[in-house]
Amino acid sequence: MVRAAGISPAYRKPHTPWQHPAVFTGPVASSGPARTTTRRLAGVVVPAKRRIRRLLVAGPRAVLARIAKALGLRGRLDLAGGAVPAGVTVFDEDVPGVVNLDPPLLAALRRAGAAAADDGVELRVNSGWRSPEYQDRLLRGAIAKYGSEEEAARWVATPETSAHVAGVAVDIGPPESARWLSEHGSRYGLCQIYRNEPWHYELRPEAIEHGCPPMYADPSQDPRTRR
Length: 227
Description:
DD-CPase-like; 11% strand; disordered N terminus; 227 residues; 9 helices; two-stranded antiparallel sheet
């Protein structure tokens, strides 16, 4: 039997199976000109050096996205960035989009959630805290959907100005839950902020005594988004 040059004796140990696909089936010369590794993609041979160069030009975020897609991690990365699975309530203790909310807001939501439960209503969280990266993805998606940054701004703020990124805003659903909070939320300092978003709530402690302040037509009218 001919042993391939440079192959570690550890190759045949049971704890190294992940290394096996990299081993050549025949002997390898220890001298001679280096060859460029290639890979066939849809019938096209792409030199490895060119692939590496393209990844470097794309930047680290693109590299991580491609790795995540290849490994099937997109859903878990979105969850860590603030995506909220269906059915999550204000009482959830495991989802970052909920537990990373500003503590006073989360406490008010849970007080309201307990009262809503007495009325047979479940306060679910459609969206809460978001990472800047996740917010940026949502914004780019809104621009693609609505056709311009100006129109997208009526629905999605930038990562720098988003109340979600700051952890001080929550989107409540389903519609009957948002309706319950619209009617009773001020008792807990929870107010709808934008007229076009009946699901978006923030904490306004003064509302407990004085009621919720007037709503903005949409996020683009909010002075906080114009910084």
